[in-house]
Design brief:
single chain; 15 helices; mainly alpha; about 400 residues; Growth Hormone, Chain: A
Protein backbone atom coordinates (compact mmCIF):
# COMPACT_ATOMS: atom_id res chain seq x y z
CA UNK A 1 0.00 0.00 0.00
CA UNK A 2 1.49 3.44 -0.93
CA UNK A 3 2.60 5.65 1.98
CA UNK A 4 0.07 8.35 0.99
CA UNK A 5 -2.76 5.81 1.23
CA UNK A 6 -1.53 4.72 4.66
CA UNK A 7 -1.52 8.33 5.85
CA UNK A 8 -5.06 8.80 4.51
CA UNK A 9 -6.15 5.72 6.43
CA UNK A 10 -4.56 7.01 9.62
CA UNK A 11 -6.20 10.41 9.31
CA UNK A 12 -9.58 8.84 8.48
CA UNK A 13 -9.22 6.51 11.46
CA UNK A 14 -8.53 9.41 13.85
CA UNK A 15 -11.50 11.38 12.49
CA UNK A 16 -13.89 8.44 12.73
CA UNK A 17 -12.61 7.43 16.17
CA UNK A 18 -13.22 10.89 17.64
CA UNK A 19 -16.69 10.96 16.07
CA UNK A 20 -17.55 7.58 17.60
CA UNK A 21 -15.91 8.39 20.93
CA UNK A 22 -18.45 11.16 21.41
CA UNK A 23 -21.24 8.77 20.49
CA UNK A 24 -19.89 6.15 22.93
CA UNK A 25 -19.62 8.63 25.80
CA UNK A 26 -23.37 9.21 26.01
CA UNK A 27 -24.49 5.56 25.65
CA UNK A 28 -24.36 4.58 29.35
CA UNK A 29 -26.33 7.65 30.47
CA UNK A 30 -28.73 8.23 27.57
CA UNK A 31 -31.64 5.96 28.65
CA UNK A 32 -31.39 7.04 32.29
CA UNK A 33 -31.17 10.77 31.51
CA UNK A 34 -34.25 10.37 29.31
CA UNK A 35 -36.00 8.36 32.02
CA UNK A 36 -35.28 11.12 34.56
CA UNK A 37 -37.43 13.47 32.46
CA UNK A 38 -40.39 11.08 32.75
CA UNK A 39 -39.94 8.89 29.65
CA UNK A 40 -41.20 5.30 29.67
CA UNK A 41 -39.13 2.44 28.16
CA UNK A 42 -41.24 2.79 25.01
CA UNK A 43 -40.46 6.52 24.71
CA UNK A 44 -36.76 5.86 25.41
CA UNK A 45 -36.52 3.39 22.55
CA UNK A 46 -38.63 5.61 20.25
CA UNK A 47 -36.06 8.34 20.91
CA UNK A 48 -33.37 5.97 19.65
CA UNK A 49 -35.60 5.17 16.66
CA UNK A 50 -35.91 8.86 15.75
CA UNK A 51 -32.11 9.11 15.59
CA UNK A 52 -31.93 6.08 13.31
CA UNK A 53 -34.80 7.32 11.14
CA UNK A 54 -32.68 10.33 10.20
CA UNK A 55 -29.77 8.04 9.39
CA UNK A 56 -32.06 5.92 7.19
CA UNK A 57 -33.35 8.94 5.31
CA UNK A 58 -30.04 10.75 4.88
CA UNK A 59 -27.32 8.08 4.59
CA UNK A 60 -27.80 7.86 0.78
CA UNK A 61 -27.97 11.67 0.69
CA UNK A 62 -24.57 12.08 2.38
CA UNK A 63 -23.11 9.18 0.40
CA UNK A 64 -24.25 10.59 -2.94
CA UNK A 65 -23.03 14.08 -2.04
CA UNK A 66 -19.64 12.62 -1.10
CA UNK A 67 -19.46 10.93 -4.51
CA UNK A 68 -20.38 14.23 -6.17
CA UNK A 69 -18.77 16.93 -3.99
CA UNK A 70 -16.00 15.02 -2.21
CA UNK A 71 -15.54 13.26 1.12
CA UNK A 72 -13.97 16.12 3.09
CA UNK A 73 -16.79 18.72 2.98
CA UNK A 74 -19.37 16.06 3.82
CA UNK A 75 -17.46 14.86 6.90
CA UNK A 76 -16.99 18.45 8.10
CA UNK A 77 -20.68 19.31 7.67
CA UNK A 78 -21.96 16.15 9.34
CA UNK A 79 -19.64 16.46 12.37
CA UNK A 80 -20.73 20.07 12.93
CA UNK A 81 -24.44 19.19 12.81
CA UNK A 82 -23.92 16.26 15.17
CA UNK A 83 -22.15 18.50 17.71
CA UNK A 84 -25.04 20.96 17.76
CA UNK A 85 -27.42 18.07 18.43
CA UNK A 86 -25.41 16.91 21.46
CA UNK A 87 -25.43 20.40 23.03
CA UNK A 88 -29.19 20.79 22.55
CA UNK A 89 -29.76 17.35 24.08
CA UNK A 90 -27.65 18.12 27.16
CA UNK A 91 -29.57 21.33 27.87
CA UNK A 92 -33.03 19.80 27.31
CA UNK A 93 -35.63 19.88 30.09
CA UNK A 94 -38.55 18.52 28.06
CA UNK A 95 -38.93 15.29 26.13
CA UNK A 96 -39.85 16.97 22.82
CA UNK A 97 -36.52 18.83 22.91
CA UNK A 98 -34.75 15.48 23.36
CA UNK A 99 -36.43 14.23 20.18
CA UNK A 100 -35.44 17.40 18.30
CA UNK A 101 -31.82 17.02 19.41
CA UNK A 102 -31.58 13.33 18.50
CA UNK A 103 -33.18 13.98 15.11
CA UNK A 104 -30.51 16.61 14.44
CA UNK A 105 -27.69 14.33 15.62
CA UNK A 106 -29.07 11.45 13.54
CA UNK A 107 -29.01 13.65 10.46
CA UNK A 108 -25.40 14.64 11.15
CA UNK A 109 -24.22 11.14 12.02
CA UNK A 110 -25.59 9.57 8.83
CA UNK A 111 -22.02 9.74 7.51
CA UNK A 112 -20.75 6.19 7.91
CA UNK A 113 -21.09 5.54 4.17
CA UNK A 114 -18.86 8.57 3.54
CA UNK A 115 -16.32 7.29 6.07
CA UNK A 116 -16.34 3.89 4.38
CA UNK A 117 -15.88 5.60 1.01
CA UNK A 118 -12.75 7.33 2.36
CA UNK A 119 -11.36 3.90 3.26
CA UNK A 120 -12.37 2.53 -0.15
CA UNK A 121 -10.63 5.45 -1.90
CA UNK A 122 -7.42 4.70 -0.03
CA UNK A 123 -7.18 0.91 -0.39
CA UNK A 124 -6.87 -1.64 -3.17
CA UNK A 125 -9.32 -4.51 -3.46
CA UNK A 126 -7.20 -7.02 -1.55
CA UNK A 127 -6.53 -4.53 1.27
CA UNK A 128 -10.10 -3.28 1.55
CA UNK A 129 -11.31 -5.71 4.22
CA UNK A 130 -8.42 -4.67 6.45
CA UNK A 131 -9.23 -1.02 5.72
CA UNK A 132 -12.89 -1.49 6.57
CA UNK A 133 -11.71 -3.18 9.73
CA UNK A 134 -10.20 0.16 10.76
CA UNK A 135 -13.71 1.60 10.94
CA UNK A 136 -14.63 -1.35 13.11
CA UNK A 137 -11.55 -0.69 15.23
CA UNK A 138 -12.62 2.94 15.57
CA UNK A 139 -16.03 1.68 16.70
CA UNK A 140 -14.32 -0.69 19.12
CA UNK A 141 -12.03 1.96 20.58
CA UNK A 142 -14.95 4.37 20.77
CA UNK A 143 -16.78 1.71 22.78
CA UNK A 144 -13.73 1.06 24.98
CA UNK A 145 -13.07 4.63 25.99
CA UNK A 146 -16.49 6.21 25.31
CA UNK A 147 -18.66 4.24 27.77
CA UNK A 148 -15.86 4.23 30.34
CA UNK A 149 -15.51 8.03 30.10
CA UNK A 150 -19.30 8.42 30.05
CA UNK A 151 -19.77 6.22 33.10
CA UNK A 152 -17.10 8.23 34.95
CA UNK A 153 -18.51 11.64 33.96
CA UNK A 154 -22.08 10.59 34.81
CA UNK A 155 -21.02 10.40 38.47
CA UNK A 156 -20.90 14.23 38.40
CA UNK A 157 -24.26 14.76 36.69
CA UNK A 158 -26.32 13.09 33.93
CA UNK A 159 -25.69 16.07 31.62
CA UNK A 160 -21.90 16.10 31.96
CA UNK A 161 -21.16 13.22 29.51
CA UNK A 162 -23.51 14.74 26.91
CA UNK A 163 -21.85 18.14 27.08
CA UNK A 164 -18.49 16.36 26.82
CA UNK A 165 -19.67 14.60 23.63
CA UNK A 166 -20.69 17.95 22.12
CA UNK A 167 -17.35 19.56 22.97
CA UNK A 168 -15.52 16.56 21.55
CA UNK A 169 -17.48 16.89 18.29
CA UNK A 170 -16.33 20.47 17.83
CA UNK A 171 -12.77 19.46 18.67
CA UNK A 172 -13.04 16.76 16.01
CA UNK A 173 -14.42 19.35 13.58
CA UNK A 174 -11.33 21.53 14.03
CA UNK A 175 -8.95 18.56 13.75
CA UNK A 176 -10.74 17.22 10.66
CA UNK A 177 -10.55 20.62 9.00
CA UNK A 178 -6.78 20.69 9.36
CA UNK A 179 -5.75 17.06 8.82
CA UNK A 180 -8.33 15.27 6.64
CA UNK A 181 -7.36 15.44 2.94
CA UNK A 182 -9.75 14.91 0.05
CA UNK A 183 -9.47 11.26 -1.00
CA UNK A 184 -11.97 11.14 -3.86
CA UNK A 185 -10.58 11.04 -7.39
CA UNK A 186 -12.10 14.17 -9.04
CA UNK A 187 -12.23 12.39 -12.40
CA UNK A 188 -14.72 9.85 -11.04
CA UNK A 189 -18.30 11.12 -10.92
CA UNK A 190 -21.50 9.42 -9.75
CA UNK A 191 -23.49 7.77 -12.47
CA UNK A 192 -25.96 10.47 -13.37
CA UNK A 193 -28.52 10.37 -10.58
CA UNK A 194 -29.92 13.86 -10.13
CA UNK A 195 -31.97 12.66 -7.14
CA UNK A 196 -30.94 10.43 -4.27
CA UNK A 197 -34.34 9.28 -3.07
CA UNK A 198 -35.62 7.31 -6.03
CA UNK A 199 -35.84 3.72 -7.19
CA UNK A 200 -32.74 4.11 -9.36
CA UNK A 201 -30.57 3.23 -6.35
CA UNK A 202 -32.13 -0.18 -5.85
CA UNK A 203 -32.33 -0.77 -9.60
CA UNK A 204 -28.60 -0.10 -9.83
CA UNK A 205 -27.92 -2.34 -6.83
CA UNK A 206 -29.70 -5.25 -8.54
CA UNK A 207 -27.08 -5.15 -11.28
CA UNK A 208 -24.33 -6.23 -8.90
CA UNK A 209 -23.98 -9.61 -7.21
CA UNK A 210 -24.35 -9.60 -3.41
CA UNK A 211 -25.81 -6.12 -2.89
CA UNK A 212 -29.49 -7.04 -2.43
CA UNK A 213 -28.76 -9.98 -0.08
CA UNK A 214 -26.41 -7.80 2.00
CA UNK A 215 -29.02 -5.03 2.19
CA UNK A 216 -31.59 -7.52 3.52
CA UNK A 217 -29.05 -8.93 5.98
CA UNK A 218 -28.28 -5.41 7.18
CA UNK A 219 -31.97 -4.64 7.60
CA UNK A 220 -33.20 -7.87 9.23
CA UNK A 221 -30.08 -8.37 11.34
CA UNK A 222 -30.19 -4.79 12.57
CA UNK A 223 -33.88 -4.99 13.49
CA UNK A 224 -32.96 -7.95 15.70
CA UNK A 225 -29.72 -6.60 17.15
CA UNK A 226 -30.90 -3.02 17.70
CA UNK A 227 -33.62 -4.27 20.05
CA UNK A 228 -30.83 -5.54 22.28
CA UNK A 229 -28.67 -2.43 21.86
CA UNK A 230 -31.44 -0.17 23.09
CA UNK A 231 -32.76 -2.14 26.06
CA UNK A 232 -29.58 -3.74 27.46
CA UNK A 233 -29.05 -0.75 29.77
CA UNK A 234 -32.63 -1.01 31.06
CA UNK A 235 -32.18 -4.79 31.42
CA UNK A 236 -29.03 -4.25 33.50
CA UNK A 237 -30.88 -1.72 35.66
CA UNK A 238 -33.82 -4.09 36.19
CA UNK A 239 -31.68 -7.09 37.14
CA UNK A 240 -28.61 -5.69 38.91
CA UNK A 241 -29.43 -2.22 40.34
CA UNK A 242 -31.04 -2.36 43.82
CA UNK A 243 -34.53 -0.85 43.93
CA UNK A 244 -33.95 0.76 47.33
CA UNK A 245 -31.36 3.21 45.98
CA UNK A 246 -32.29 6.88 45.59
CA UNK A 247 -33.16 7.84 42.00
CA UNK A 248 -29.95 9.77 41.32
CA UNK A 249 -27.85 6.96 42.79
CA UNK A 250 -29.73 4.41 40.66
CA UNK A 251 -28.90 6.41 37.52
CA UNK A 252 -25.21 6.55 38.45
CA UNK A 253 -25.04 2.84 39.31
CA UNK A 254 -26.89 1.72 36.17
CA UNK A 255 -24.70 3.95 33.98
CA UNK A 256 -21.57 2.56 35.63
CA UNK A 257 -22.60 -1.09 35.14
CA UNK A 258 -23.62 -0.43 31.54
CA UNK A 259 -20.26 1.25 30.97
CA UNK A 260 -18.42 -1.82 32.26
CA UNK A 261 -20.32 -4.13 29.90
CA UNK A 262 -19.91 -1.95 26.82
CA UNK A 263 -16.23 -1.32 27.54
CA UNK A 264 -15.47 -5.05 27.55
CA UNK A 265 -17.32 -5.44 24.26
CA UNK A 266 -15.35 -2.54 22.83
CA UNK A 267 -11.99 -4.02 23.86
CA UNK A 268 -12.70 -7.27 22.03
CA UNK A 269 -14.13 -5.47 18.99
CA UNK A 270 -11.05 -3.26 18.72
CA UNK A 271 -8.69 -6.25 18.91
CA UNK A 272 -10.58 -8.20 16.23
CA UNK A 273 -11.34 -5.36 13.85
CA UNK A 274 -8.08 -3.52 14.40
CA UNK A 275 -5.75 -6.43 13.71
CA UNK A 276 -7.37 -9.81 13.17
CA UNK A 277 -10.12 -9.14 10.61
CA UNK A 278 -7.67 -8.88 7.70
CA UNK A 279 -6.08 -12.24 8.56
CA UNK A 280 -9.47 -13.84 9.11
CA UNK A 281 -10.70 -12.54 5.77
CA UNK A 282 -7.67 -13.90 3.91
CA UNK A 283 -8.19 -17.30 5.51
CA UNK A 284 -11.97 -17.63 5.32
CA UNK A 285 -13.29 -14.86 2.99
CA UNK A 286 -16.04 -12.31 3.58
CA UNK A 287 -18.94 -14.66 2.80
CA UNK A 288 -17.95 -17.24 5.42
CA UNK A 289 -17.30 -14.53 8.02
CA UNK A 290 -20.72 -12.95 7.41
CA UNK A 291 -22.47 -16.29 7.95
CA UNK A 292 -20.41 -17.08 11.05
CA UNK A 293 -21.00 -13.60 12.48
CA UNK A 294 -24.77 -13.92 12.16
CA UNK A 295 -24.81 -17.32 13.91
CA UNK A 296 -22.59 -16.08 16.74
CA UNK A 297 -24.76 -12.99 17.30
CA UNK A 298 -27.93 -15.10 17.42
CA UNK A 299 -26.52 -17.45 20.06
CA UNK A 300 -25.04 -14.56 22.07
CA UNK A 301 -28.42 -12.79 22.21
CA UNK A 302 -30.30 -15.88 23.37
CA UNK A 303 -27.80 -16.32 26.23
CA UNK A 304 -28.55 -12.95 27.85
CA UNK A 305 -31.96 -13.68 29.49
CA UNK A 306 -30.62 -16.98 30.87
CA UNK A 307 -27.66 -15.09 32.36
CA UNK A 308 -30.12 -12.60 33.83
CA UNK A 309 -31.93 -15.43 35.61
CA UNK A 310 -28.67 -16.32 37.40
CA UNK A 311 -28.29 -12.74 38.72
CA UNK A 312 -24.57 -13.02 37.95
CA UNK A 313 -23.22 -9.78 36.50
CA UNK A 314 -19.85 -11.47 36.09
CA UNK A 315 -21.41 -13.95 33.66
CA UNK A 316 -22.85 -11.06 31.66
CA UNK A 317 -19.40 -9.47 31.44
CA UNK A 318 -17.88 -12.81 30.35
CA UNK A 319 -20.55 -13.20 27.62
CA UNK A 320 -19.80 -9.75 26.17
CA UNK A 321 -16.73 -10.81 24.15
CA UNK A 322 -18.77 -13.52 22.41
CA UNK A 323 -21.28 -10.93 21.20
CA UNK A 324 -18.40 -8.65 20.20
CA UNK A 325 -16.84 -11.45 18.16
CA UNK A 326 -20.01 -11.84 16.08
CA UNK A 327 -20.46 -8.14 15.32
CA UNK A 328 -16.72 -7.63 14.75
CA UNK A 329 -16.46 -10.18 11.96
CA UNK A 330 -19.88 -9.38 10.45
CA UNK A 331 -19.85 -5.62 9.88
CA UNK A 332 -16.45 -5.05 8.21
CA UNK A 333 -17.00 -8.17 6.09
CA UNK A 334 -20.30 -6.79 4.79
CA UNK A 335 -18.73 -3.44 3.94
CA UNK A 336 -15.74 -5.08 2.27
CA UNK A 337 -17.94 -7.39 0.21
CA UNK A 338 -20.05 -4.47 -1.00
CA UNK A 339 -16.96 -2.43 -1.84
CA UNK A 340 -15.36 -5.28 -3.81
CA UNK A 341 -18.60 -5.91 -5.70
CA UNK A 342 -19.07 -2.41 -7.19
CA UNK A 343 -17.06 0.13 -9.24
CA UNK A 344 -15.36 3.21 -7.77
CA UNK A 345 -18.02 5.71 -8.81
CA UNK A 346 -20.65 3.94 -6.71
CA UNK A 347 -18.67 3.40 -3.49
CA UNK A 348 -20.14 6.23 -1.41
CA UNK A 349 -23.65 5.78 -2.75
CA UNK A 350 -23.94 2.02 -2.20
CA UNK A 351 -22.12 1.98 1.12
CA UNK A 352 -24.43 4.79 2.18
CA UNK A 353 -27.44 2.81 0.97
CA UNK A 354 -26.31 -0.15 3.06
CA UNK A 355 -26.04 2.12 6.10
CA UNK A 356 -29.54 3.32 5.25
CA UNK A 357 -30.92 -0.23 5.42
CA UNK A 358 -29.18 -0.71 8.76
CA UNK A 359 -30.63 2.57 9.99
CA UNK A 360 -34.12 1.49 8.91
CA UNK A 361 -33.60 -1.61 11.03
CA UNK A 362 -32.65 0.65 13.92
CA UNK A 363 -35.91 2.54 13.44
CA UNK A 364 -38.06 -0.58 13.62
CA UNK A 365 -36.08 -2.55 16.23
CA UNK A 366 -36.10 0.06 19.01
CA UNK A 367 -39.70 1.04 18.18
CA UNK A 368 -40.92 -2.41 19.21
CA UNK A 369 -38.22 -3.16 21.83
CA UNK A 370 -39.62 -0.73 24.38
CA UNK A 371 -43.13 -2.13 24.04
CA UNK A 372 -41.87 -5.70 24.35
CA UNK A 373 -39.69 -4.78 27.33
CA UNK A 374 -42.73 -3.40 29.17
CA UNK A 375 -44.48 -6.76 28.66
CA UNK A 376 -41.46 -8.80 29.79
CA UNK A 377 -37.80 -7.85 30.07
CA UNK A 378 -36.81 -11.13 28.36
CA UNK A 379 -39.06 -11.02 25.28
CA UNK A 380 -36.86 -8.65 23.17
CA UNK A 381 -33.96 -11.12 23.44
CA UNK A 382 -36.02 -14.14 22.37
CA UNK A 383 -37.53 -12.27 19.42
CA UNK A 384 -34.18 -10.72 18.48
CA UNK A 385 -32.48 -14.12 18.37
CA UNK A 386 -35.33 -15.59 16.31
CA UNK A 387 -35.14 -12.76 13.78
CA UNK A 388 -31.52 -13.58 13.03
CA UNK A 389 -32.69 -16.73 11.25
CA UNK A 390 -33.95 -14.91 8.09
CA UNK A 391 -30.65 -13.00 7.94
CA UNK A 392 -28.75 -16.30 8.06
CA UNK A 393 -30.97 -17.61 5.26
CA UNK A 394 -30.22 -14.56 3.08
CA UNK A 395 -26.50 -15.06 3.65
CA UNK A 396 -26.73 -18.33 1.72
CA UNK A 397 -27.20 -16.24 -1.46
CA UNK A 398 -23.85 -14.46 -1.08
CA UNK A 399 -20.98 -15.29 -3.42
CA UNK A 400 -17.31 -14.32 -3.38
CA UNK A 401 -16.91 -11.45 -5.89
CA UNK A 402 -14.89 -11.82 -9.08
CA UNK A 403 -12.14 -9.31 -9.82
CA UNK A 404 -14.39 -7.35 -12.21
CA UNK A 405 -16.96 -4.96 -10.76
CA UNK A 406 -18.88 -4.53 -13.99
CA UNK A 407 -22.66 -4.99 -13.68
CA UNK A 408 -23.87 -8.54 -14.09
CA UNK A 409 -25.91 -9.30 -17.18
CA UNK A 410 -29.56 -9.05 -16.17
CA UNK A 411 -31.00 -9.90 -19.59
Amino acid sequence: MPSSSKSHLLVAFITIFLDLLGFGIIIPILPFFTKSLGASPTLITLLAASYSLMQFLFSPFWGYLSDKKGRRPIMLSSIFISGIGYLIFASATQIWVLFLARILSGFGNANLGTAQAIISDSTSGEERSKGMGLIGAAFGLGFIFGPAIGAFLSQYSPQTPIYAAGILSFGNLILTYFILPETKDPSIQPEGMDKVFNTQLLQQAKKYTNLIPIFFISFIGTVAFSQIEQIIALFIEAIWVPEELMEEEKIKTAARYTGYYLTIIGVVAAIIQGGLIGKLNKRFGEVTLIRAGLIIIMTAIIMIPFIGSTKSFLLLLISGPYLALGTSILNPSKSSLISRSIPSQLQGTMLGLNQSFSSLGRVIGPSVAGLLFEISINIPFYIGAGMMLPAIWWSLYLRAPHQSTEPKNTN
